[in-house]
Fold:
Amino acid sequence: MAAVAASRKSTLAGRKTRTGSNIVVKVIASSLRKGNVVDKDGKLYVILFAENIHPGKGTPVTQLDMRRIGDGVKISERYRTTEMVERAYVEEREHTFLYSDGEGFHFMNPESYDQVVASEGVVGDFAPYLQEGMAVQLAQFNGVPISLVLPQRATFEVVDTEPVTKGQTASSSYKPAVLSNGVRTTVPPHISAGTRIVVMTADGSYVERAKD
Structure:
C-alpha cells in the first residue's frame, strides 16, 4: 500500500520528467514562445513561430511552427490553448552577442569566455535585432546552438519616416517607418527620423520613445 501511495503521489506531482540530460515539463500550449524547445513523440523540436488564435466562435487554439533538431524537418501543429505540451529544458545559458560573419553569429559565455557560433537558420528572424554586447539566452544541444531568446525589447533609431505634420497627435493613425536595423515598422505621427525608439524584438512593433 505504501508503494502504491508513493507511486500515486509521484504521478500527481510528476509534471517534471527527465529525458537523457534534458528536463521535460508539461506546460499549457498558450505559454509556449518562439525559441522554446518541445518534446513531441520523443523528439525535440524548436519553435519557430507561435500564435494564440481566439476565434469568435469555437475553441481558442495555439498554432506552432517547429523545426526538428535531429534533421531539420519542419512541421506545424495546432493545440487547444489549455492543452498540455511537453516543454524540454535543454542546456540554456546567458551568452553575449559578439558579431556575425560568413561563418555565422558569434556568441560568448561571459563566465567561461567560451565562444560558439549559431547558424543563420537558428537565429532566423532575430538577426536584425541582435546588437553587439546584447545578452541573450542561448540553448544548446550536445554543444550545438539550437535556439536563442532575445530580450523582449530593444532600442533602435528611426532612419526614415514621414515628417511630422502640424495638427497630428499621438492618437492619430500610425505611419510607416524604417529602423536603423533595416526593419520596417509603424510609429506614432509625432515620431520623426533620428528619434530613438523602443520596439518589441518579436515583431518590431513600437513600444515607446527611448528615454536615453
In short: Residues 1-16 have pLDDT under 50 and may be disordered.
